[in-house]
Amino acid sequence: MATVATKRKNNNRAVTIGKSEEKKLNPFHQRLARLTHYQACQLLGEQGSQLLARGEQVEIETERDVFLGGDLYRVRVGAAVVTLTLQSGRSQQLQLNCDQCEVSCDHLGAALAHLLDAKSTMGLAAPPDEIVPLENLTEQELVHRALAEREKRAREEPMTVRSLNKDTPWADYLVTSESSGKTYRVALRGCHAGQSYCSCPDFRTNHLGTCKHILHTLYKLPNRFTAKQLSKPYRRKNLSVRVQYMQPVGLVFNVPDTLEDSAAEIICTSSIESLSGREMMQRIQALEHAGYDVHIYPDAEERIQRDLLQVKLEKLAAQIRKDPAKHPLRKELLNVELLPYQLDGIAFAVGAGRAVLADDMGLGKTIQGIGVAELLAREVDLRRVLIVCPASLKSQWRSEIDKFSGRSSQLVIGKGDERAEQYRSDKF
Asked: 18, 166, 355, 381: least buried by Cβ within 10 Å?
């Protein structure tokens, strides 16, 4: 069984490849392992969040100040001693006590804050209890749960793994799910999150740097390679650009083991710090001008083009918004003359990329939405637009699209198979 180790303060997990016995936690340790920030606040009472926040500022050293026994968690906080145990007769109910205070205090907050932060170093790392609602989890707890879910599916779901280079573990693989029949490409480059790549949609959107296909492939490596082979890291030979899907999402360089000083000076820290498409393009052009070849992966090229396009739209929006009242698009964009604030709203949405237009009824939000689609059609060759609205408003939208822009439209109605055919229509 593969053992997963977690580094504190981030989701850069590493799968330790090899067989080991999974350590079973006793009930008390299990309860501590699944304690969430929200539950800790509840333990502390009405001032729980403030006590935890102040407790995070208190310096506690695990080896010096903390004792974790079979049924006792004890922390020395200054002159105070805080204990945490299970209430007798109630297996899931924790009981807090401070020998210096009779009510919830900063000592209790510090002890719980340290517990939440140092679970990994104390051997208590575990995903939050699944019965805890997502809205009650911190960002770190959400990441922990998401990783645990993918690890579980990676172990339990049947998949077929085929290597494209059987001589090394760090190679490209084709991973096929036996339940769905879908095949994805996994580029395995190491055990840590963020080192490998998968072509599945989940990998691109979960910001975890891994997925069940990568994890499943890692779990199977000990059956195919020796410990010595697995201990050798992947060696890059060429300079390339990839998308960093972990936060912060952006573009980074894959740097080979040997790199000339002039190339390293251009790349600087962008092998570990993500760049925007415009910033990356400047580095690539500088490298190519200096005589270096740079391989750009397809998803990285797509992101660069998207970022450069967004820069173009931002400039267009800024130019329109300088004086929307006098801009020629007021009369030229649609079949009716737009009011200045309506053109300003259209430019704002186009420049933002993603936006919410909110205003009182009757001020022209519909015409602004149609204007956004029309401006994007002219500037970036937009060919399809999906409008999601109440069924009672579908006909009104079609009427106003025809009136204001003259574009074709398709109402999507009926059963599933009928809708699928309607979606294939070439209407705008």
From this structure: 381
